[in-house]
Amino acid sequence: MVAPAVFRALRKNKTFRYGVPMLLLVVGGSFGLREFSQIRYDAVKIKKIKDATFEDWKNIRGPRPWEDPELLQGRNPETLKPKAA
């Protein structure tokens, strides 16, 4: 008969009613953030950018919205500028 009285007292206690769910949220959120952060660091390890070779890399400017993409692909932007008279 003591258990129902204790349960009723705990339901009326504001610390138990609001504090325990808040504490569970904070502690659970900490573990959740740790897992999501670990996913981010694991994804960075997979990329292995430092192993890539950049000797044959060429910088190609993309077309602007008002320019024709077929005209610019593979051409030097300096040759496309109008020449001053």
TrEMBL record:
Q: Which regions span the lipid bilayer?
A: 15-33
User: In which domain of life is the source organism classified?
Assistant: Eukaryota
Alphabetized InterPro entries for the sequence = Cyt_c_Oxase_assmbl_COX16 (IPR020164)
Kindly list any coiled-coil regions of this protein: none
Give one Pfam family, short name only.
COX16
Record GO biological process: mitochondrial respiratory chain complex IV assembly
Keywords carried by this UniProt record? Membrane, Mitochondrion, Mitochondrion inner membrane, Transmembrane, Transmembrane helix
Where, subcellularly, is it found? Mitochondrion inner membrane
Note the topology in the membrane: Single-pass membrane protein
Predominant localisation class: mitochondrion
The similarity annotation says: Belongs to the COX16 family.
The molecule here is called: Cytochrome c oxidase assembly protein COX16 homolog, mitochondrial
What's the source species for this entry?
A: Neotoma lepida
